[in-house]
Structure formats: C-alpha cells, structure tokens
Amino acid sequence: MSAAIFEKPPVDWITINSLIERDMEDKIEVIAGDMFKDEFPEGFDVHLFSHVLHDWDFSDVKLLLENSYRNLNPGGRIMIHDAHINAAKNGPLPVAEYSVLLMFASEGKCYSISEMEELLAGTGYSEIRYVPTVANRSVIIGEKE
C-alpha cells in the first residue's frame, strides 16, 4: 500500500517533518498543492477528506468533490470522515452545537448525511453509504463508476 498527503505550502513542510519524526517518510509521499486551485494528483484509489469539508460552503465542497471524482482511478472511492448531522437534520445535538460553532468560525457547517449523499450523487459517485464511527463522527463513502 502507498499513500500520499496533498497539502498546501508551507504546511507541506510541517507534514514532511512530522513524517520524518515518525520514520514514515519512505512510506507516505507529500504532494504540495492548493485544493482550490490545483487538480488533485492522479493515480489513487482512495481520497480521504477527514475533518476538511465542514470548513467550506456548499459551492466549495462541490468543487472539491468534483476535483476528487475527476482524478480518482476508475473504481476508486471517496471517504468523508467528519461530524455529520443526521439525514432528517434534527440531530445529534452535539453535532448541531459543533455546526453552530463552525458557522461562526468558518464558511462551513456540519453537513447532513442527506446533503452529502446529494452532493456525491450529483458529482457522479454511486454506492453511497454512511458508516457511523465514534464520538458522533462518521464516514460517508462513495464509489467512482
């Protein structure tokens, strides 16, 4: 298995130093780029967005998902790890509270499961599924046809 981290300079150097400290620099590549200006690197089977999308508004999230879809290998998967509001948009309360905080601190919010499913399907992803994890977090997975 190989992995890469796509990170904007100068944070890419912080990431590289963190990998060196953990003796992982030979296992994980760091690719410098701006997720809003550059195409995501090609040749990967999985794109993981962990606690990223909640910082951005709907149009920016759509842009990132489209970039992912264009550049994932055929049959690849997107994994969105975050705090998600339930599909009915009525909880859980800790995620709703976190979402209010995000709305004051960033352009984003905690997106609901139904909003993420709609965005992913609109981008072309299929086989979309929701997997709860721990601490009111979850992963939403979509597959590229």
Question: In DSSP terms, counting alpha (H) and pi (I) runs of 4 or more, how many helices?
Answer: 4
Percent helix, as a range, is: 25-40%
Estimated radius of gyration: 16 Å
**Mean residue pLDDT:** 97
Under CATH, the homologous superfamily reads: Vaccinia Virus protein VP39
Number of domains: 1
Distance from N terminus to C terminus (CA atoms, Å) equals: 22 Å
Overall, the morphology is globular
The CATH architecture classification is: 3-Layer(aba) Sandwich
Total strands: the figure is 6
- Beta percentage is 25-35%
Low-confidence stretches: none
Compile the SSE list and pairings.
Layout: E1 3-7, H1 11-21, E2 28-32, E3 44-50, H2 58-71, E4 72-82, H3 93-105, H4 113-123, E5 126-132, E6 138-143
Parallel strand pairs: 1-2, 3-4
Antiparallel strand pairs: 4-6, 5-6
Quick description:
This protein is 34% helix and 28% strand. The protein has 145 residues and is of the alpha/beta class. The strands form 2 sheets. Strands 3-4-6-5 form a 4-stranded mixed sheet. Strands 1-2 form a two-stranded parallel ribbon.
